[in-house]
Design goal:
about 260 residues; alpha/beta; 5-stranded mixed β-sheet; 7 helices; 5 strands; about 10% strand
Length: about 260
């Protein structure tokens, strides 16, 4: 029913301007046939009315064609503008993290263009969300840091070296926070130092290294503390000959995935 109603409305819009012309033409034709008394007058009036009606109909048809052409031209310009806007959105999306799905790249109607742009905007929103998640640096909130420092303080003081992957501002910032936290707990913390010998794979958690993993000492305390306060770390204690002192623990911050 809505589709049929739409067709009726479109038909009325097309023929609406011609209805008054048709009514006037019909009245004039009736008067031309009825009112004149002489036959030749009737014929002359009928011819005149038909001529005027024809000219009026032709002019109306011409105006409708011009209006339709102008409308089509405007629609084409709008589609071209929307295609240009879609291209700009697409160029922006290519600078963001890859999306999991692709959006339509072409369209021929304004409705298709609006759908394509809507999909593209939603896609870019998802890409921006991913980018924000990736750009957020690792950190320990103030409340957890205070509780962790209080927990470590009860075990005394141990030497700890905090290192991080070179040329990584985010990793350095997280390592620096660990150093400050350990110092607040009264531990003998040093760093952050750049450790080119431990680039390894990207990891969210802190890696723990000691010279002898069979004598974990402070490393075991740190792992228990990280577990208690939900601080991400790489499971296990790794051995490292680069650590000369058996009592020293090295905490290494890798590149964030």
């Amino acid at each position: 029913m809505p589709a049929q109603l739409t067709e009726w409305v479109d038909a009325a819009a097309r023929w609406g301007p011609g209805i008054p012309v048709a009514i006037v033409f019909a009245i004039a034709l009736v008067e031309a046939v009825v009112l004149p008394r002489r036959a030749w007058a009737k014929g002359a009036w009928v011819v005149a009315v038909l001529a005027c009606g024809g000219l009026a109909g032709a002019d109306l048809h011409l105006q409708q064609q011009r209006s339709q052409t102008a409308s089509q031209s405007a629609t084409g310009d709008e589609i071209a503008a929307l295609q240009g806007l879609w291209g700009q959105w697409d160029a922006v999306s290519r600078t963001l993290p890859p999306a999991s799905e692709s959006s339509p790249a072409s369209f021929d109607t304004i409705q298709d263009a609006l759908v394509s742009l809507s999909i593209q905007v939603a896609q870019i929103d998802r890409q921006i969300a991913v980018l924000r998640a990736q750009s957020k640096g690792r950190s320990i909130d103030d409340e957890t840091a205070a509780k962790l420092a209080d927990y470590l303080r009860q075990f005394g003081s141990f030497p700890v070296l905090v290192s991080c992957v070179p040329n990584d501002v985010e990793a350095y910032g997280y390592a620096n926070q660990l150093v400050n936290l350990l110092r607040a707990a009264g531990w003998d913390a040093h760093g952050p130092e750049m450790s080119a010998i431990r680039p390894g794979a990207a990891a969210m958690g802190v890696s723990v290294f000691v010279r002898d993993p069979h004598s974990p000492g402070a490393a075991k305390i740190l792992l228990d503390a990280f577990t208690r306060f939900n601080i991400p770390f790489q499971s296990g204690i790794a051995a490292s000959e680069a650590i000369l002192d058996a009592a020293t623990v090295e905490l290494f911050v890798a590149k964030k995935p």
